[in-house]
Design goal:
By secondary structure, the chain is mainly β. It is built from no helices and six strands. It has a single domain, classed as Immunoglobulin-like.
């Protein structure tokens, strides 16, 4: 599992896509009170300190990325 540590003022996680069109990927988070994400573009914004997971899904493949937001 991938992990990203960001401070609350940092708002962008960069991702790379291999063999998948960005239009085929949807993004969600497990705790919208910590990180919100645009489900189409994948642009994430930290809302508060804590641990969350960004979930990227294409077809039946799902990847969870642990995000730790620090004050």
């Amino acid at each position: 599992m991938a992990e990203a540590k960001v401070k609350a003022e940092e708002q962008l996680l960069l991702t790379e896509y291999y063999g998948v069109e960005i239009d085929d990927i949807t993004f969600t988070t497990s705790a919208k009170s910590i990180v919100i994400i645009n489900k189409i573009t994948g642009k994430a914004m930290a809302k508060s300190a804590g641990t969350d997971y960004v979930i990227a899904k294409a077809g039946n493949v799902e990847v969870r990325i642990k995000v730790v937001v620090q004050k």
